[in-house]
Amino acid sequence: MILDLFAGPGGWSRALAVLGVRDVGLEWDEWACKTRAAAGQLTIRTDVAMYPTRPWAGRTRGLIASPPCQAWSMAGKRLGLVDQPLVHEAVENLAAGRDTRAKLLTACRDERSLLAAEPMRYLHALNAVGEPEWVAMEEVPDVLPLWKQYAAVLRGWGFSVWCGILNAADFGVPQTRRRAILLASRVRTAQPPAPTHAQVAEPESLFGPGRARWVSMADALGWGATDRPVPTVCAGGGPGGGPEPFPSGSRKTLVNARDRGTWTPRPGSVVLQSRREGAGWAARHGTRENRGADRPAPTFTSEAHRWSWSLRSNNQANATVRSIDEPAGTLFFGHRANECTWVAEPAPAQPEDAATATAPEPIRITAREAGILQTFPADYPWAGNKGQVFSQIGNAVPPLLAGHLLAPHLGVSLSPDDFTLAA
What is the CATH number of the domain that holds 401? Predict the structure, then answer.
């Protein structure tokens, strides 16, 4: 089997399915489990910190782990950095077969911090029977020192190990998402996959096959293609509308124990429609209900030439803003960053009155769009309300990146064409 700890909504599982393999995911969050079930993925709903390791011994080929990042992420309070010495101590003890988690947990500022030590509990148990054959782990960049500690332990057990920071955009993901990665193997030299994309395209040469230009949001979402209309951007669908779900891999049980580019649409194209109206829009144009079914949604076709579209990553002052002709910044969602929106800016070299024209209002990104920018298929069966769905998307591993990481361990070739985006 391939065991997937903190499996979330299925980023790793989606990649494995494309590669022709299945895993068994351990996941706590109810809605992530429902998403996985709808996607046909094998799941055990459980607290990863409490599930026994014995059932996996003697039957596990690969171990995958993406511990929850909330304690370490720049989008949160980052108390994981304060707790880091305690997490290192837990890893050291677990690698030696000593379980001191309950004691260390009482000293943690964020109870989720210690979840990053959980993979070592499973690895120690599996190593006793010569397993697993390979390991793949992913977390936010600040966890890299912890991955280096894991690497030292795994090398002592006979693994070849590589760990470092990878940018998802270098592998065809339309998002500059940087993550700390650990890859280990008992049967091959562990090394990172070769990047397939670059910020500036590199032609094929004697020194390599070359690299395509980073995939832009317009490319991924199918906006501006010659054989289809330019974007129909939906308002609504943004985070909110429900309580924040319990973090993936909950500790609850154990506790009780910039540069902007431009995108210019074709003349006469429909640039902006609203299928679910946002604040301010309904007051001026009416809602779908009171406009009448026979009236089309309002558009900005008469002023299309004046605006280019960008994605603002959140509602904070230092939010990343990227042109539609660039990859998105790192997508993350939660109570402190719940306004990932499309914003319109004056297009360059336009008539002088463009600066005085009224810009279209910001419009929240939809879950479908966010999922596509994470390289999930457009029809991925997300479960839950808006807040629960966006939380799953922001915490997931991009399947295309996961595919690049896993393919060498499985001895199969990866075709990026298999990861269909907009449809």
Answer: 3.40.50.150
Q: Is residue 343 part of a domain?
A: no
Cα dist. 394→211, 324, 375, 422 in Å? 27, 19, 12, 18
Q: Which two tokens stand for residue 317?
A: 């002052």
Residue 12's identity, in one-letter code, is: W
Name 212's bridge partners.
197
Residue carrying structure tokens 């959140």: 314
Asked if residue 421 belongs to a domain, the reply is: no
What is the rounded average pLDDT for all residues in the chain? 79
From CA 93, how far away is CA 104, in angstroms rounded? 11
Token pair for residue 251? 């500790």
User: At 80, is the pLDDT very low, low, confident or very high (cuts 50, 70, 90)?
Assistant: low
Phi/psi zone of residue 210: left (φ > 0), alpha (ψ -120 to 50 degrees), beta? left
**Is 326 inside a domain boundary?**
no
Q: Is residue 312 part of a domain?
A: no
Domains held by the chain: number: 1
Domain hosting residue 129, numbered range = 2-201+397-416
Is residue 277 a contact partner of residue 285, using CB atoms and an 8 Å limit? yes
- Dihedral of CA atoms 10, 15, 18, 20 in degrees, nearest 10, equals -90
pLDDT in tens, 273-296: 333 333 343 443 344 334 333 333
Q: What is the pLDDT of residues 21-76, one digit of tens each?
A: 999 999 999 999 999 999 999 999 999 999 999 999 999 999 999 998 665 555 55
Q: How far is CA 210 from CA 385, 416, 418, in A?
A: 42, 16, 21
Amino acid letter, residue 388 = Q
pLDDT recorded at residue 345? 78
- Would strands 212-213 and 321-323 be described as parallel, antiparallel, or unpaired? unpaired
Which amino acid appears at position 351 of this protein?
A: P
pLDDT at res. 279:
37
pLDDT in tens, 300-352: 444 555 678 899 988 778 889 999 999 999 988 765 445 788 988 777 655 55
The number of helix segments (H) and strand segments (E) in the chain equals 13, 13
Alpha carbon of 264 to those of 97, 132, 226, 367: distances in Å?
Answer: 60, 51, 13, 24
Phi/psi region, residue 234 (left: phi>0; alpha: psi -120 to 50; beta: rest), is beta
Name 266's Cβ contacts closer than 8 Å, sequence gap at least 6.
Answer: 224, 230
φ/ψ (deg, to 5) at 355: -65, -25
